[in-house]
């Protein structure tokens, strides 16, 4: 019996790590990327209990903003004769700042990781996608709801969705579908990486108690939606989104 294979970017923490664990449990073979070799090794150890003879797990060093590493990843798929049934473009960054104080370095880094990198990744992976194949971009509710301090982040997510809508038309004959998961505020490492201190993160999490869900979201809250979007159940969806926000957009 053949096993479906998914490539998952940015899976050494947060939503990516939770998704990798969930998909292994569902019987998928998982190839995941990370930016740090030590983190990749640690993730392999965490996920190895969920690997069986029927499925495989592989971690690859690949920074979304590093074009050479993207090409090396594609070359490794070619060498191993791997065909992908699904791709989850999850890796991303967030640097909160009012637009009037925005710095070029943060602007360029955000667009590189959240837009240019996934676009070039998808271009490089195209020869290695099966027919049919599902691509899911982990976007954000910022595409549909404005937040202060998130102008560039919002633009980067909206830009990729606009690009992918066109690819749904260009790649229709290949039966490649691209859809989007739009998480609400989710507790991951992204808050600490954005410069928030533990006390600030705690207060921030408490502020989400006013949403219908009554709490900040967790990575595990996203995995069922991701699993559906890469499953055959989504085969007639193109440019669609699933919003998992705990009701914060209501």
Automatic annotation (TrEMBL):
<comment type="similarity">
    <text>Belongs to the short-chain dehydrogenases/reductases (SDR) family.</text>
</comment>
<dbReference type="InterPro" id="IPR057326">
    <property type="entry name" value="KR_dom"/>
</dbReference>
<feature type="domain" description="Ketoreductase">
    <location>
        <begin position="4"/>
        <end position="175"/>
    </location>
</feature>
<dbReference type="InterPro" id="IPR036291">
    <property type="entry name" value="NAD(P)-bd_dom_sf"/>
</dbReference>
<protein>
    <submittedName>
        <fullName>SDR family oxidoreductase</fullName>
    </submittedName>
</protein>
<dbReference type="Pfam" id="PF13561">
    <property type="entry name" value="adh_short_C2"/>
</dbReference>
<dbReference type="InterPro" id="IPR002347">
    <property type="entry name" value="SDR_fam"/>
</dbReference>
């Amino acid at each position: 019996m053949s096993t479906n294979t998914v490539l998952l970017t940015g899976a050494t923490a947060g939503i990516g790590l939770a998704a990798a664990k969930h998909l292994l449990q569902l019987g998928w073979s998982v190839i995941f990327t990370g930016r740090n070799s030590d983190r990749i090794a640690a993730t392999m150890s965490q996920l190895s209990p969920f690997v069986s003879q029927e499925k495989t797990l592989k971690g690859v060093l690949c920074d979304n903003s590093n074009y050479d590493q993207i090409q090396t990843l594609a070359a490794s798929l070619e060498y191993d004769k791997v065909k992908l049934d699904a791709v989850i473009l999850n890796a991303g960054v967030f640097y909160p700042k009012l637009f009037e104080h925005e710095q070029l370095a943060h602007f360029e880094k955000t667009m590189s990781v959240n837009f240019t990198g996934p676009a070039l990744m998808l271009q490089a992976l195209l020869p290695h996608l099966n027919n049919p194949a599902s691509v899911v971009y982990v976007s954000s509710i910022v595409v549909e709801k404005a937040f202060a301090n998130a102008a560039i982040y919002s633009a980067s997510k909206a830009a990729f969705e606009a690009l992918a809508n066109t690819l749904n038309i260009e790649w229709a004959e290949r039966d490649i579908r691209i859809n989007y998961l739009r998480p609400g505020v989710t507790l991951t490492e992204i808050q600490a990486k954005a410069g928030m201190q533990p006390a600030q993160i705690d207060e921030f999490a408490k502020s989400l108690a006013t949403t219908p869900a009554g709490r900040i979201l967790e990575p595990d809250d996203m995995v069922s939606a991701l699993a559906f979007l890469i499953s055959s159940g989504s085969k007639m969806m193109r440019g669609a989104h699933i919003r998992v926000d705990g009701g914060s957009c209501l």
